[in-house]
Amino acid sequence: METPAGAIAPSAPFLGASSGAFYPTPTERAPALAARLGLSDLEIMLQTAGEYAPRFARRLATACDGEGRRVHAVHLWQQLHPLLSPYARRAREGRVAFERAIEVARTLSAAVLVWHGPTPAELAVPDGRSRFADAAGTLGARCGEAGIRLAIENVSWCALAQAREVAAFATRTSGLDSAARPGFVFDPFQAAEAGANPFLILASMGDRLVDVHLSDRSADDPTARHLPPGDGDLPWAALLRAIVGTGYRGPLMIEAPLDPDGITLARVRARLDPLLAALVAGGDGRDGAPPPGVVEGIALFNARRFYDAHEAIELEWHAERGDRRRLYQGILQIGVGFHHVLGGNHRGAVLLLTDGIAKVSRFVPRCLGLDTGRLVTESAACLAVIEDLGPDGLGRFDPETIPMVHAAA
């Protein structure tokens, strides 16, 4: 998102809201509700064909101006845009509706036009993926002419559900002129719905991230969808760190339902604002404290729950873009190495411990308040014993000698 001349660029992403968060309140009332909640930026989710009309766009622009709200993005109504349909009239009318949406975005001074891309059924035509990339390039150029960035969202039931699909699309469109090249919208909820790794999806988007959607889900209850961030089990500390690591500094659009009294938003702010503030204050040096996922993982490591420690730390490893990710990976690998020891896998233990110790050794004697020197020394001593015992003698290894991760003195 470009910053207007004379404006101060934000130092970190900040909370905004989709007009869909106020559903079924009419779209034109979203600016007033956002103002009431103190949210400066909106994503307008078009809900009907009538909301594509120029008259409605002007009415909405007047409402936004009157409330002092900015429109960062306009979100297409998916059903109106079957651009790859073999039924020519559907495809043609979908393209006409797309042109109207571009005009809506221009009227609202939006920076981004959000599209899910085609569904798998729509892609099931000859050269479907190539046609999708070509259409995105053509429409991206039209958006660019209007001063808008077309952006494709990772959606569980559409074209870019998996990281490999995002990466392939990014490669197919990388040669386009910068004004025409589509950007991406990152939605960690949708990644979870698709069973995809959200960190790999975000990494596949590269430096083309232009919008972010926020809602949560509970893995234990698939019906609990689009929860307020923090009400489910998505790893928000790691996700926000990864988002900041891309360089994105625009609004984070809440898509979960928001009540007009601000009770839900206050709960979301209490969870996310401290995490965002810590990201602004933090750095990539050796001072400070480990992020929450690493703290949790270390506690599990010290409880000898090495597999669970791996799961917790892996999220932070994916999220971190700086050199510290090697430290996180090293601790993770040492834990998995000892997991292999306890499981009788000599070869796996030697490989993981050797690699993990080498990585953590780059951060001795201490880093992030951790006594990395002691962890390396004690893990190396265990590795030497394990190598001497060999595969047949691994059962004689004393698990009481497995080190813990200690705080630096």
Automatic annotation (TrEMBL):
Database matches in SUPFAM superfamilies: TTHA0068-like, Xylose isomerase-like
Protein name (record): Xylose isomerase-like TIM barrel domain-containing protein
Residue span(s) of domain Xylose isomerase-like TIM barrel: 32-260
InterPro entries (alphabetical): DUF309, IolE/XylAMocC-like, TTHA0068_sf, Xyl_isomerase-like_sf, Xyl_isomerase-like_TIM-brl
Pfam families referenced in this protein's UniProt entry, alphabetically: AP_endonuc_2, DUF309
Organism of provenance: uncultured Thermomicrobiales bacterium
Organism placement in taxonomy: Bacteria, Pseudomonadati, Thermomicrobiota, Thermomicrobia, Thermomicrobiales
